[in-house]
């Protein structure tokens, strides 16, 4: 019984990590897709904000220290801007 | 006798084996083989007539010129029919289903999907702009190059969903035709 529980616990921890794309990876991929360099394909220091008209702004720093701003308009257009 | 407090070696082995099974279920080994199944089969089929001809020639070494031309004709006929069959097999994936699968896949995140959507909308706008200016036929090669680049990006991003990636690549001609049909 104990071994079955251990096996189930291992399954629970392993399967989601194998499938899901983290937000940091998602943002980094978007930055790369817009032609900017983001080594390691991950970001940190993520800050999000949304204005009254539904435009979303996300700021994140790549592993090389460069900070980017992602602008997602209300109609779903995505643009990336380098901040430093 | 009391059982020891630290985990048993068998328990550790059970956990490791379960993790390996979970990983194998998540990333199946046959996925890579699946990714090329259709195209590879067609290539193998197309290659067979060559080998048949060679075998036939070796069986009858004293063939005259007329017989050789007959053999060549058989070979070209076989070569023409097989790729046509492969082409018709390639364009079988429904585009609406592909759209739904692309929206629902876990291999890419929300922002990446939005970025891809923006790129597709941009491409459609470019096509419509050229159509309005009656320059679409002239600029078709340029637009097709942009389309191929975008498709390559999407296929590369979908490394976590190899089946969808393969289906998108296989049905690229259908997607291109449907893009050309979209009007503003």
Brief overview, please?
The complex is a heterodimer of chains A (84) and B (184). With 84 residues, chain A is of the alpha+beta class.
Structure description:
The complex is a heterodimer of chains A (about 80) and B (about 180). Chain A has helices spanning about 1-20, 25-35, and strands at about 45-50, 55-60, 65-70, 80. By secondary structure, chain A is an alpha+beta fold. Chain A has one domain (about 20-80). In chain A, strands 1-2-3-4 form a 4-stranded antiparallel β-sheet. Chain B is mostly helical and about 180 residues long. Chain B contains 9 helices and no strands. In chain B, helix 7 packs antiparallel against helix 8 (about 160-170). Chain B starts with 8 loop residues before the first helix and ends with a helix. The chains are: A alpha+beta (about 80), B mainly alpha (about 180). The interface between A and B is medium-sized, with 28 and 28 residues.
Q: Main traits of this protein?
A:
heterodimer; A: 84 residues; alpha+beta; four-stranded antiparallel sheet; B: 184 residues; mainly alpha; 2 domains; 80% helix; 0% strand
Radius of gyration of chain B: 26 Å
In the sheet with the most strands of chain A, the strands line up as 1-2-3-4
Largest sheet of chain B: none
Q: Please give the count of helices of chain A.
A: 2
For the terminal residues of chain B, how far apart are their CA atoms?
80 Å
């Amino acid at each position: 019984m104990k071994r079955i529980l251990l096996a189930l616990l291992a399954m629970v921890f392993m399967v989601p990590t194998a499938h899901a794309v983290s937000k940091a990876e998602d943002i980094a991929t978007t930055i790369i897709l817009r032609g900017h360099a983001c080594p390691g394909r991950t970001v940190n220091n993520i800050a999000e904000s949304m204005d009254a008209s539904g435009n979303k702004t996300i700021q994140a720093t790549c592993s090389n220290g460069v900070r980017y701003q992602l602008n997602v308009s209300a109609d779903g257009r995505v643009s990336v801007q380098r901040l430093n | 006798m009391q059982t020891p407090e630290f985990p048993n070696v068998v328990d550790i082995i059970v956990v490791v084996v379960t993790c390996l099974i979970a990983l194998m279920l998540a990333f199946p080994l046959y996925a890579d083989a699946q990714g090329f199944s259709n195209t590879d089969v067609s290539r193998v089929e197309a290659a067979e007539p060559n080998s048949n001809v060679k075998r036939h020639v070796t069986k009858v070494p004293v063939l005259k010129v007329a017989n050789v031309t007959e053999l060549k004709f058989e070979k070209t006929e076989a070569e023409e029919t097989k790729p046509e069959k492969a082409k018709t097999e390639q364009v079988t994936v429904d585009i609406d289903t592909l759209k739904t699968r692309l929206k629902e896949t876990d291999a890419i995140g929300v922002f990446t999907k939005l970025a891809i959507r923006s790129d597709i909308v941009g491409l459609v706008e470019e096509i419509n702009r050229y159509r309005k200016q009656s320059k679409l036929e002239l600029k078709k090669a340029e637009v097709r190059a942009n389309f191929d680049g975008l498709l390559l990006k999407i296929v590369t991003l979908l490394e976590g969903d190899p089946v969808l990636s393969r289906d998108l690549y296989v049905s690229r001609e259908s997607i291109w035709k449907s893009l050309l049909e979209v009007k503003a």
